Amino acid sequence: MGDRKAVTASSGGFDAVVEHILIHYRWVFVIVLLPLSLLYDVLLYVRSWVVFQLSSAPSKHASKVENVAKQVRQWSAEGARTPMCTARPSWQTMSFRHAKYKKTMFTVNVNLVDILDLSAERRTVRVEPLVTMGQLTATLDPLGWTLPFVPELDDLTVGGLVMGTGVETSSHKHGLFQHICVAYELVLADGSVVQVTKDSDPDLFYSVPWSYGTLGLLTAVEIRIVPALRFVKMQYEPVRSLEEADTVLRRQLDLPEENEFVEALMFSKDEGVVMTGQMVSCVDWGKLNEIGRWHKPWFFEHVRTFLRSGPGVEYIPLRDYQHRHSRSLFWEIKEIIPFGNNPVFRYLFGWMTPPKVSLLKLTQTQAVKKLYERNHIIQDMLVPIEKFKESVLFFDEEVAVYPLWLCPFRLPSEPGMLRVDKDSMYIDIGVYGVPTRKDFDPKETTRRIEAFVSKAKGFQMLYADTYTTREEFRKMFDHSLYDKMRSRLKCDKAFPEVYEKVCRKARD
Ligand SMILES: Cc1cc2nc3c(=O)[nH]c(=O)nc-3n(C[C@H](O)[C@H](O)[C@H](O)COP(=O)(O)OP(=O)(O)OC[C@H]3O[C@@H](n4cnc5c(N)ncnc54)[C@H](O)[C@@H]3O)c2cc1C
Ligand SMILES: NC(=O)C1=CN([C@@H]2O[C@H](COP(=O)(O)OP(=O)(O)OC[C@H]3O[C@@H](n4cnc5c(N)ncnc54)[C@H](OP(=O)(O)O)[C@@H]3O)[C@@H](O)[C@H]2O)C=CC1
Ligand SMILES: CC(C)=CCC[C@@H](C)[C@H]1CC[C@@]2(C)C3=C(CC[C@]12C)[C@@]1(C)CC[C@H](O)C(C)(C)[C@@H]1CC3
Fold it and tell me: For residue 325, which ligand has an atom nearest its CA?
């Protein structure tokens, strides 16, 4: 990885040797984690399966919510000394950083992990906030239903995706995660429990997404579901310039009826592959590719092969498609297990991968952390599709990290943090990896990127590092409805502002 020598040389003697081992041979520790990760998954799997089969969760939900409300009342009775946040430990969350505020704030246990109810009639599923994407697809897909889109990493939670955001390849039709949610259940700062829909309380309904748990504690979410077909028919179209990528993407986005899924990976600024897909129930068995099987190559490497072989069509089982980037954590796994895509490794150990992000995070050493801080960028920038070419060129000048993840999404004109004048098409540009530009400076480069995105009327995803000032943050995100709600719900003492949770200072 980038500048490993510089980091190693910065400490002396014994420390330097230990640091060297931790950085260069991290895979040894990670391989030890693999069986633990698997065991952890299997236990969760069995637990959720039993609970779902027994249908015991719905009857217990009310008392679990009451327990959350009780903690809020206790906070108030103790004099509301420090603001509240959830007690979910930082190492379990899907971001690079640890939240410092968890150490000082009043933490509320929101231990709500179950799927509550599936209504084919209303076409919704009601879930508790700690339900994960892996859990949902494993439960819904075999029943013939699925979410309109599934943010791909198995361990992303519904609560995190509502309070932060989620985007995926059918977002060009369905919008962001908030746009497939129809109702929220929240415990507010006064300990009351409310059910909120677009009609019952539009102000609160539209201000929950992107509020990062600073308006109330989420205890249930009702999400739309759609019929699931067993396979996805995928078309891969290589492109040889940015101009061509732009043209092909727009052409495909003009066919929403034909394309359920639209995604692209750029492997350099002039080379990429645009992927489109539809759910289907019949396959051409000769073209079936079960990419989720343990011995299959990492998905992004598989996509890269179409640059050589030219356009292609194949069929992928639905759940394999939904979690296609899970096994390789997009492409971050290559920094962690460099030989992980070698067929020998895949056949022998692939069934245990991916290591769980939470366990990786829990066991990450200071040396690795420093290395990532200096030599790594993890950012998702949401920009209007018209700014696509300009943005890729800008990222190329600043960091030149490839592959780039490109995921178009529809942004309806609605009240809330992401205010746009009219329904618009945006694109998420995901930059994950080691910058190859020599003058990369984590803070200065990210600040330039943030300024570019803000000027382009874009938004930064908040699980990543933000170096914006409070004023810049308020300029990027419309706070008018949010401020109104914080004052109506008396959040001042109860919860910090979003900025205080996501700014670089609040994270370790
Ligand atoms: C009712 C029910 C509830 C569940 N609840 C939870 C839960 O609460 N928390 C939780 O973490 N898991 C839960 N799971 C399972 C979960 O979704 C995982 O995918 C599980 O770790 C895989 O176990 P498996 O036995 O299906 O093994 P396999 O499918 O063989 O998976 C082995 C490894 O591959 C990964 N993987 C699985 N499918 C794919 C795919 N299509 N593409 C890429 N990688 C893939 C897995 O994450 C796992 O690490 C639940 C499953 C069910 C049926
Ligand atoms: N494809 C995609 O869209 C991807 C999205 N992501 C990002 O990852 C994040 C989700 O990760 P995940 O680990 O699931 O979530 P986190 O635990 O990181 O939660 C994110 C925020 O939501 C708040 N929150 C979560 N649950 C509740 C609740 N029940 N009540 C009140 N507030 C809550 C948390 O508050 P608190 O600080 O109090 O705990 C936190 O501020 C999102 O920000 C998402 O944008 C990451 C990868 C892919
Ligand atoms: C909107 C979309 C699609 C976002 C995808 C974001 C992923 C690429 C991010 C989410 C969590 C994430 C930040 C993570 C890491 C890499 C990038 C990830 C997977 C890693 C695994 C890098 C190595 C680190 O030592 C550590 C284990 C702490 C983190 C954990 C979180």
Answer: 1
